[in-house]
């Protein structure tokens, strides 16, 4: 019998979606602008809720928000009433409007020749920040860098991008590695 992989405390779960997200996505550097927009949008939806709730609705979010294609989502303002009636997603008007707004901002960046990937990764000089976490209780809910990034993103027109949301996004997108030191994913990120 094979030994179970050691995961971060929050990844040690019987929930397949949570475990797969931990093992295959969280903290792994992403340079795909569509994926980064998806992660930002999911973190916005997660604010004040559990991550498991968001993961359970992820497929419905993808369907409702055109697979997070920012070019399509930026045009969705007329669909807000329909989105707010969709019981498969989190129906928070401010969050839905923020996602549509953020798609517009990403489209404006692209029109000026700046990819969302390059925009985001510039905050960490294109190099993931590695925190040496030995226990999940050491993980901060925000940092000075996340506060700076949040402030700049708001100045650039992004919405619902407070420092806690932004730090969670940084973790999800791999800008920050907050996997625990003995987590098998942390060890693969060293390779």
From TrEMBL:
Annotated binding of Zn(2+), by residue: 8, 22, 179, 183
Leader sequence residues: none
Biological process annotations from GO: base-excision repair
InterPro entries in the cross-refs: Adenine_glyco, DNA-3mA_glycosylase, DNA_glycosylase
Enzyme Commission designation: 3.2.2.20
An example Gene Ontology molecular-function term: DNA-3-methyladenine glycosylase activity
Keyword annotations from UniProtKB, A to Z: Glycosidase, Hydrolase, Metal-binding, Zinc
PANTHER family assigned to the protein according to its UniProt record, in alphabetical order: DNA-3-METHYLADENINE GLYCOSYLASE 1, DNA-3-METHYLADENINE GLYCOSYLASE I
Name assigned to this protein: DNA-3-methyladenine glycosylase 1
Organism of provenance: Lacticaseibacillus paracasei (Lactobacillus paracasei)
């Amino acid at each position: 019998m094979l030994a179970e992989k050691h995961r971060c405390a929050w990844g040690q779960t019987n929930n397949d979606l949570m475990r797969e997200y931990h093992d295959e996505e969280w903290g792994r550097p992403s340079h795909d602008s569509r994926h980064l927009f998806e992660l930002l949008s999911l973190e916005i939806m997660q604010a004040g809720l559990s991550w498991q709730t968001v993961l359970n609705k992820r497929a419905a979010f993808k369907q409702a928000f055109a697979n997070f294609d920012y070019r399509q989502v930026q045009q969705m303002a007329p669909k807000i009433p329909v989105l707010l009636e969709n019981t498969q997603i989190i129906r928070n008007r401010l969050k839905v409007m923020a996602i549509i707004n953020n798609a517009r901002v990403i489209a404006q960046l692209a029109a000026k020749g700046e990819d969302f990937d390059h925009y985001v990764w510039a905050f960490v000089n294109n190099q993931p920040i590695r925190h040496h976490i030995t226990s999940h209780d050491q993980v901060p809910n925000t940092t000075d860098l996340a506060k700076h990034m949040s402030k700049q993103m708001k100045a650039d027109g992004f919405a619902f991008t407070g420092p806690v949301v932004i730090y969670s996004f940084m973790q999800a997108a791999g800008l920050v590695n907050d996997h625990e030191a003995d987590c098998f994913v942390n060890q693969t990120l060293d390779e």
